[in-house]
């Protein structure tokens, strides 16, 4: 296991402990990470290197992805890509799982829920490291389950495939992403859950984004809305609202202004009926719809970009939103700012996105494109911009 130099890592650990978790003492961190108080003190002062195992224990105690603590941020990128073949192997045997132990249903549900939390907070290294074994275990449990447990395990498979897909899609493994989505569509049949089927339809849109088949993706979402249950009760309202949000964005990418506006209006109407929250694995509510309003304006481009800037004026997404959605807002806003000639603001937004969710930001293609454009324009602090473009591998 490589040892990470203590200085930069130690400062980051001290920051997350004392600023993000201001009530956490060094002793409490040591206890949570199963380390000695002396070890934590030396690490924070930069007097001791940190192994991967120790760093991951500290990150777990702080509730952050280990990549946020490392000095060599490129390591997270490499680790995720190195894990993709294991993930591919795990799903290749979805119907022929190997022998091995399986935990009780309650423990599997907790493990899948924890992994879903990593997806929402953009902790992709944890997902890449953990999901292959979890998917194999879920497949074993599903294929040996009795009739009573089978629908529940199918639902857990859907959720776990979705979590794995987040890594595959964001790291550019679109064929693997499409395969995971196919498996979601296969497993959801056994759940008999129409809300979960709506969630799968939401995620399926990624295949249309990847293929730039936006008009077809819009048709698929509208078909899902046509067959979805009526909005009666918070879960159904949120599920329908999420589909309308997604339809608005893909309609924007298709340059279908009328459809984008109609779906966004429907999403806003539904969002007014529920509090902001995560429903069926997807964030939905008034704040999420406002973020998607910015996204639609950017997708439509041209005369609509000013709307994105208008919506962002005097408003910031609340800190409690999932990191993926929170950072995504600033990535979209940066593009609108860049197109409008506000280059300093665009760079500030990109840096804000990185601070919220570094892995999500680094792997987003728009970030690389816009950082490279800013670099060519030389309209921001040259040294800081050079560092940023190197970090996100912009060319």
Structure description:
With 395 residues, the chain is an all-alpha fold. It folds into four domains: 72 residues, 434 Repressor (Amino-terminal Domain), CATH 1.10.260.40; 118 residues; 123 residues, no CATH class; 67 residues, no CATH class. It has 20 helices and four strands. The protein has a two-stranded antiparallel ribbon. It has a two-stranded antiparallel ribbon with strand order 3-4. α2 crosses α3, α5 runs parallel beside α7 and α19 runs antiparallel to α20. The longest helix is centred in the middle third of the chain and has 21 residues. It is globular. The chain starts with a strand and ends with a helix. 49% of the residues are buried. The mean pLDDT is 91.
Q: Helix fraction?
A: over 70%
For the termini, the CA-CA separation is 31 Å
Total number of strands: 4
Q: How many domain units?
A: 4
Q: DSSP strand (E) fraction?
A: under 5%
In short:
Helices cover 73% and strands 3% of the residues.
List the helices and strands and how they pair.
Layout: E1 3-4, H1 6-20, H2 26-32, H3 37-45, E2 50-51, H4 52-62, H5 74-92, H6 105-120, H7 124-144, H8 150-170, H9 174-191, H10 194-211, H11 214-227, H12 234-253, H13 257-271, E3 277-279, E4 282-284, H14 286-300, H15 305-312, H16 323-339, H17 343-356, H18 358-363, H19 365-377, H20 382-391
Antiparallel strand pairs: 1-2, 3-4
Helix pairs in contact: 1-3, 2-3, 5-7, 6-7, 6-8, 7-8, 8-9, 8-10, 9-10, 10-11, 10-12, 11-12, 12-13, 12-14, 13-14, 14-15, 14-16, 15-16, 16-17, 16-19, 19-20
């Amino acid at each position: 296991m490589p040892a990470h130099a203590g200085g930069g890592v130690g400062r980051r650990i001290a920051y997350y402990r004392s600023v993000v978790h201001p009530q956490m003492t060094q002793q409490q961190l040591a206890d949570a990470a199963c380390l000695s108080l002396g070890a934590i003190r030396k690490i924070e002062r930069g007097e001791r290197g940190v192994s991967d195992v120790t760093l991951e224990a500290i990150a777990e105690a702080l509730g952050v992805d280990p990549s946020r603590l490392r000095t060599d941020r490129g390591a997270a990128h490499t680790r995720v890509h190195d894990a993709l073949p294991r993930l591919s192997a795990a799903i290749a045997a979805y119907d022929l799982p190997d022998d091995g132990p399986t935990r009780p249903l309650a423990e599997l549900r907790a493990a899948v829920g924890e992994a879903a939390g990593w997806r929402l907070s953009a902790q992709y290294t944890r997902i890449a490291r953990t999901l292959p074994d979890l998917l194999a275990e879920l497949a074993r449990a599903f294929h040996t389950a009795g009739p009573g447990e089978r629908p529940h395990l199918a639902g857990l498979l859907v959720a776990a495939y979705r979590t794995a897909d987040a890594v595959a899609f964001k790291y550019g493994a679109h064929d693997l992403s499409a395969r995971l989505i196919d498996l979601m569509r296969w497993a959801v049949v056994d759940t008999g859950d129409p809300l979960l089927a709506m969630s799968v339809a939401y995620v399926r849109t990624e295949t249309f984004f990847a293929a730039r088949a936006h008009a077809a993706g819009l048709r698929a979402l509208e078909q899902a809305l046509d067959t979805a249950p009526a909005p009666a009760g918070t879960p159904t309202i949120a599920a329908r609202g999420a589909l309308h949000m997604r339809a608005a964005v893909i309609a924007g990418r298709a340059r279908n202004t009328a459809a984008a506006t109609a779906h966004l209006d429907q999403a806003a109407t539904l969002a007014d009926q529920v509090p902001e929250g995560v429903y069926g694995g997807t964030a939905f509510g008034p704040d999420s719809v406002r973020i998607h309003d910015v996204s639609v304006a950017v997708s439509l481009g041209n005369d609509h970009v000013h709307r994105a800037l208008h919506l962002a004026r005097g408003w910031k997404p609340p800190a409690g939103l999932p990191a993926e959605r929170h950072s995504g807002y600033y990535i979209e806003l940066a593009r609108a700012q860049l197109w409008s000639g506000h280059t300093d603001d665009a760079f500030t937004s990109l840096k804000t996105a990185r601070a919220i969710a570094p892995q999500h930001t680094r792997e987003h293609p728009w970030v690389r494109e816009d950082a490279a454009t800013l670099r060519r324009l030389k309209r921001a602090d040259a040294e800081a911009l050079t560092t940023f473009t190197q970090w996100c591998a912009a060319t």
